[in-house]
Amino acid sequence: MKRGKVKQWHIKLEKARSWFSKVVNAFEVTMLIAGTSALAILLNVNIVARQFFRAIYFIDELTQISIIWTTFGGLSYAVRKVRHIRMGAIFDIMPHSTKKILILLICAVSAAVMLSMSCLGVFYLIKVAKLEQTTPALRIPYWLFISITPVGFLAAGVRYILTFIKNIIDREVWLSSEQKGEYEDIQE
Q1: 46 domain-assigned
Q2: Is 0.85 topped by the overall pTM?
Q3: Closest CA to 160 of 97, 96, 98, 117
Q4: 186 inside domain
Q5: Has residue 20 been placed in a domain?
Q6: What are the CB-based long-range contacts (under 8 Å, 24+) for 47-50?
Q7: Are 38 and 66 spatial neighbours (Cβ–Cβ below 8 Å)?
Q8: Which of 52, 56, 109, 162 is the most exposed place for a label (fewest CB within 10 A)?
Q9: What total of structural domains would you count in the chain?
Q10: Are 164 and 33 in contact (CB under 8 A)?
Q11: pLDDT category, 186, cuts 50, 70, 90?
Q12: How many CB atoms lie within 10 A of CB 20?
């Protein structure tokens, strides 16, 4: 392949990654803001209701929905911002070539696990939908509660794939497609 075609391919790949990243970023931030806000409002309303009136019977279900949606909606956000559990102390003392191999392996295995969990989530979602199970208080189909699960795992899997690609293309070690594998300078 000629150098110009490689450069064009690289530019197209970067534009596609950037567009996809913006769409997923908007989804992640929306899930986190909406879920956290809903959780805070619901819990405060329930506290006030318990003090002055009676507890609102369906608040617990809405709180559970909020927690599930925030957790799985924000899963890929944690991958993108490298806010998940990792062995940073061990990783940081390794030589560059070992880090590069290890990060590629970590990304590949993590992407495979996330995508597998997404598939299992879809199968579970279908199974729950067939059971026609509903929540006790609101009588909402239970599958709506957990519909975010395969989506969150899929988005996290794609984030790991993007990180894998970024590490293949770039010589530096990238912990995510947006964050290099080095300590950030802390400004005091």
Answers
A1: yes
A2: no
A3: 117
A4: no
A5: yes
A6: none
A7: yes
A8: 52
A9: 1
A10: no
A11: very low
A12: 15
Type of residue found at 28: E
Backbone angles phi, psi at 104, to 5 degrees: -65, -40
Which residue in this structure is represented by tokens 């913006």?
22
Cα–Cα–Cα angle for 175, 177, 180, rounded to 5 degrees:
45
pLDDT level of residue 115 (50, 70, 90 thresholds): very high
Structure tokens at 73: 């909606």
pLDDT band at 185 (very low <50, low <70, confident <90, very high): very low
Contact 150, 125 (CB under 8 A): yes
Structural domain that includes position 119: 3-180
Q: Specify if 146 maps to a domain.
A: yes
- At 2 the pLDDT is 62
Do 168 and 105 touch, CB atoms closer than 8 A?
no
Say how far apart CA 82 and CA 183 lie, in whole Å.
Answer: 12
Average pLDDT along the chain: 82
Q: What torsion do the CA atoms of 32, 37, 40, 43 make, to the nearest 10 degrees?
A: -100
- Closest by Cα among 4, 48, 20, 11 to 159: 20
Give the pLDDT mean for 143-150.
Answer: 89
Share of the chain above pLDDT 70, in %: 89
Residues 6+ apart with CB under 8 A from 2: none
Which residues are registered as beta bridge partners of 179? Answer: 176
Tell me how far apart the alpha carbons of residues 66 and 38 are, in angstroms, rounded to a whole number.
Answer: 7
